[in-house]
Hints:
This protein is of the alpha/beta class. It has helices at 3-6, 77-80, 90-98, 152-158, 205-208, 211-225, 242-253, 267-272, 286-292, 311-314, 337-340, 357-375, 391-399, 419-422, 425-428; strands at residues 16-17, 30-37, 49-57, 64-73, 102-103, 117-118, 132-133, 137-145, 165-169, 183-187, 191-193, 233-236, 257-262, 277-280, 299-304, 318-326, 344-347, 381-387, 406-410, 432-436. The longest helix has 19 residues, at 357-375. The radius of gyration is 22 Å and the shape is globular.
Amino acid sequence: MGAVNSQAQEGQGMEEKDNNNGTAPEGHTIRCEGWTIEKPIRSWSASAMVYVDNVMVPPPGPGQVRVKIYAASVNPVDVKRPRFGRNNGFFSWCNENFGKVGKNSNSNIGGGVSEIVSTSTRHEPPEFPFPYVMGTEGAGVVESVGWDNDDMEQRERYGLQVGDRVAFLADITMTNGGTFCQYALAMADAVGRIPSPTTDDVIGFVEAAVMPCAVGTAYVALFDKLRVSSGRSIFISGASGGIGSAAVQLAKYAGMYVLASCSTVNVAYVKSLGADYVFDYTASDVVGECLAHTRGFGVDYVLEVADAALAVHHADALRFGGSICVLPEHMPISSEVFFRRQLSIGYVCLAGLHADPLTRGNLRHVVETCMKLYQLGAFQLQLETVPVERADTALDIISTGHTRGKIVLTIFHPDDMPYGDDMMGTRRRKHAKVQSGQAAPAVSIQTAAPPPAQ
């Protein structure tokens, strides 16, 4: 397995096969199963994914925890990450999508007038190792910690101990941090605790697995970048996917007037989320519709979830002094209109928070805040659960850019299913619609019956 296994070589003779018993001798490397990518690829293909049974996950180092994964959400970044790493890592991928961008570059973005010139040695782009374990977000149980479990000072500092139920956003620059694996390493200060299963509103691993990236991105975009307020208007593109559907509901929870766009088949679904007006982007002039519904003034905010290439066009729907937040990639700014109309631009890249120890702790705050909002009923989840062995099929669906809700991988440990967590499924799924499937696009989803008590 090359680099995926290399971290375990120092511990040869100490490897412990998981055997699904949830434990390994303290300080030992665990050999387990998971999905890996061996080398960079030029375009997405599920054939690049390799499911292996010899992923070596080393013991956690200082400030780290090792998590036994029970659920992992599938995200668009999972099909982009295999393209990072060639030449200059992330910027190589940006160059292919937006023109020459990056260190010492004087070229325009996508033919526009703006330039990104970085001569900073402090903010070098990250390197992305290969091979690596796939997966961006997940949920499970802390199996071991990078400090003495009886060390009260460290336990108080990180707020974690062995046995805690947690959810986290993986650091995609780590070799062994991916969540499409039975075990994953994570930085302790970025891990959020799932509320105790003894509480009235139980959150299971399936729901928790979508909080760090999908819901977390929507939360940060709305309340940190755009800083939305009650009574204002917002247009949200790509409103049927994991991020978009969460954003629609959170915006309504905040008292906003929500305009949204999606494909024809998802219009009714997005309306059910609470959007005040939904445009079928295949049959409507989205900007014209936004202006018509705001008496020609334009909306206060635009949240570009669908496609960064559309961001400049969608920004025409903004009022003077409005704000846009772009999620998928960089926004190719090609007009002085942004300057003249005093428009503000924001981006959300939660993975970037891992790079700075001063910001990494914000990831825990985001995860735990989203779970609290979920318990309050601020948003619902539409989920399809798929066995982890079918992750390749799930990612092929994600790569199309046309999904409804979220796909969550499960059954990481067939002999150790978390039924103790799910047996209270009726309460646990108070705000969730969950369907078990084979990674087929969700169309009509019914609330799943709780599994039998064990």
